[in-house]
Amino acid sequence: MPSVFVQGRPVGSYPPLAPEARRGSVRRITEFGTEVLHKPCRDITEFGPDLAALIDDMFLTMYVAEGAGLAANQVGVDLRLFVYDCADDDGVRHVGHLVNPVLDPLTPDERRLIEEDEGCLSVPGATMEVPRPDRAVVRGQDREGQPLVIEGTGYFARCLAHETDHVNGQVYLDRLSRRERKEALRQADDRRERVYARRAAKERALTG
User: Fold this and answer.
1) Contact (Cβ atoms closer than 8 angstroms) between residue 125 and residue 36
2) Tens-digit pLDDT profile for residues 7-43
3) Which helix (H) or strand (E) holds 148?
């Protein structure tokens, strides 16, 4: 099996950072509690240079924050879009973006839940166990508006579901009990300064 898939297609080789990141600028990541994170995002209807520039910025911002995925509302933009650079459980790397993503429902036979640690760049430093299906199929479009279907298993399926939740106005804390959410926010309070210091160092390394 190929070791890298870009936009769902196998490639022979790929650089450590997606080429989009070289064209991008770092944006501020919105934190849990910011209004734009807690309402469904708007469909994208215009495909052009503004969308391409946003995707570039999101890739660089994701790498600076050392994330596996990033949704547009995590940089304060109310649009249905996410980018990703994420390995699955077999070590296969998946890189790309998805516009107007919609997660396919799974039948009971397909729905095998795996409970594993999950974090979020908008809840810096916190991780909690969250049950997610071990398979995901997300349909949408690419930056030119062409139809796109991305499938994932294992950790990559978790990433796809997590980012689709974001554009639907949901963060992973919404899937936790009240006690678990309180613990996640406590972790974020304790670790926020260290996380932001690491991001600042990463930004200097990537853009200096």
Assistant:
1) no
2) 999 999 999 999 999 999 999 999 999 999 999 999 9
3) strand 147-153
- DSSP state for residue 152 in the 8-state scheme: E
**Percent of the chain scoring above 70 in pLDDT:** 100
Q: Is 20 noted as a catalytic residue in this protein? A: no
In this structure, the dihedral spanned by the alpha carbons of residues 129, 198, 5 and 19, taken in order and rounded to 10 degrees, is 150
Backbone angles phi, psi at 55, to 5 degrees: -60, -45
| 1 or 198, which is more confident | 198
Whole-angstrom distance, CA of residue 44 vs CA of residue 22: 24
pLDDT in tens, 89-145: 999 999 999 999 999 998 877 778 999 999 999 999 999 999 999 999 999 999 999
User: Of 163, 180, 193, 203, which residue is the catalytic one?
Assistant: 163
Burial class (CB in 10 A: 0-12, 13-18, 19+), 53: middle
DSSP string, 95-135: EEEEEEEEEPPPPTTT--EEEEEEE-TTSTT-EEEEEEESE
Check: CB of residue 180 under 8 Å from CB of residue 131.
no
